[in-house]
Amino acid sequence: MRVSLLGPPGSGKGTQSEVLRDRLRVPHISSGDLLRDAVARGTELGRAAKGYMDRGELVPDQLVLGMIRERLRNTDCGTGWLLDGFPRTLAQAEALDRLLTEEGRGGVEHVVSLHVPREDVVVRLGGRRTCGGCGRLYHVRFQPPKTEGVCDACGGRLSIRRDDEEATIRSRLDVYDRQTAPLLDYYRGRGLLREIDGTTAPAEVSGRILATLDGHG
Ligand code: AP5
User: Fold this and answer.
1) Which CATH class is domain 2-27+74-118+174-215?
2) pTM attached to this predicted model
């Protein structure tokens, strides 16, 4: 299955991807994780992307497209993929369509859009903690680890993401409204958009997504 997960920062894309990749048996490809990994490794891409990410702006399309093109060529993508946070602009969506056509691959089948009000995501991101070892996500209030600061799954140390400072969160939300929200119409027009209420507990949101994907067989 070929699915793209859209939604504002903090709407739960990463949290839902942890469940969906296992249920759908496809690789989880997060453009944000790939970029953060490039920054951590100090690659040319990482050095170019870092300033944009720290300011909460989008990394230029050409850089992100090259990275995604390379990732989708990986053999694990043969049976499909779950894209998290990509595409994020109209230009990226059109380039993805062209890329999949040129390479003779099937196109995007479902675009799941998570809806969560702005003030809720500010609270979610303010309390987010991420495991430095396995990447598992927590929230100090909504999904706390058993031991404060320590990952339940691998014992890794939990940390706060650099771009989760309140002013940066608000700029990321503005960027989403301006540059990503127009994609909803793009995919709605193609009959691919699956709109999901993302405000309830994570397991309920997963249930709604899976039921919707099932319903669109
Ligand atoms: P990216 O890493 O994609 O970040 P984002 O889109 O801002 O989304 P987040 O990862 O912050 O949130 P999420 O929706 O995954 O929520 P999560 O599950 O973590 O991008 C980062 C940066 O990289 C961008 O700003 C940009 O610079 C660059 N970038 C990435 N892709 C790009 C692209 N395509 N083009 C250009 N630039 C790009 O949940 C958040 C918190 O809420 C967690 O603590 C979680 O435990 C909690 N939570 C989750 N679900 C629930 C729930 N149902 N109820 C209560 N709490 C919940």
Assistant:
1) alpha beta
2) 0.95
